[in-house]
Task: structure prediction
Amino acid sequence: MKIKHNSSFFIVGLTVATSLLVSFTIAAKKTQSVEEEQIYTEKNLKKVKMDETEWKKKLTPEQFRILRKAGTERPYGEAYNTFKKQGAGKYVCAGCDTELFSSNEKFDSRCGWPSFYDPSNAKNVKTSVDYHLGYPRTEVLCAVCDGHLGHVFTGEGFDTPTDKRYCINGTVLKFIPQNASSFDKDANKSSGGEK
Result:
């Protein structure tokens, strides 16, 4: 009887261990496939690389501090107030003019920074975990120039299709209105990078 009890215990333990192993393997494969997809996407993007001197010439001091040094603008600033007034259009990276977000995914989270529930072109945005504040946060980066854009937060209860908040520094976004002519886009390109 003692032998049966031990073998039943062994079988139950083996079953639990096998189930856990299968669960961990499935989770690891999902994580691996997401990472592989991100690596594949990055390899197929034309990357923009410049040295620090070139970035400093291209960007304003505030854009350089945020994009290249992972800084953060103050909440409820001029960039946020301007963002709230912008209508239909797209938002491109101030560092490389890559489309990142659009007004279709924009929403007012009342957090003091521009908010989007999803990128307009997912391959142009990548994420990474940072520990700058001593705990993990999901950093949002431009996949083309590796510029720091902000952070993404999930599960905050916003009534959006993804329940995500891409909290982005407005200073590093250039807005291109939907109905802008090519002249207006060029004017916005040059003035947007100087704000």
In short: The helical segments are 2-43, 52-58, 61-67, 78-85, 182-192.
